[in-house]
Design a protein that fits this description.
Largest sheet: 2 strands, antiparallel
Mean pLDDT: 78
Strand order of the largest sheet: 1-2
Low-confidence stretches: none
Helix content: 40-55%
Number of helices: 5
Distance between the termini: 31 Å
Structural class: mainly alpha
Length: 119
């Protein structure tokens, strides 16, 4: 419980940074953004005669599983020891510990602002 609380505190600190450095047209995992906001942006971009005629929506399989530890360590503005602990913490399933070799912890409070940084 203490770890989740600490991650939430770091998330509160990282959110404003992610909002100013992240893609302005990204709507997933963003505070105060909704599917309706994404639809409105699509309308603005597609309403002109010279606009694209189609939209590609995709869920990139394995995205969280393959984010580079090295990139996160170099680009997330948090004490590096803390980031390393989050990334290498592993997980326990049915009383068996599994080491984390790559990717980011899914479901962690701090994951969204770390992946929203521009890559």
């Amino acid at each position: 419980m203490k770890d989740r609380a600490m991650q939430t505190l770091y998330k509160l600190a990282l959110d404003p940074i992610a909002e100013t450095t992240g893609d302005p047209n990204s709507y997933g995992f963003r505070e105060k953004r909704s599917p309706a906001d994404a639809i409105a942006q699509c309308f603005l971009c597609l309403r002109q005669k010279s606009s694209a005629t189609a939209i590609l929506e995709a869920d990139i399989r394995g995205c969280f599983d393959n984010i580079s530890f090295e990139w996160l360590m170099a680009n997330i503005p948090v004490e590096k020891g803390i980031v390393k602990q989050w990334l290498k913490a592993g997980y326990i399933e049915r009383n068996v510990y599994y080491e984390t070799k790559d990717g980011t912890p899914q479901g962690s409070p701090v994951t969204p602002p770390t992946i929203l940084q521009k890559m």
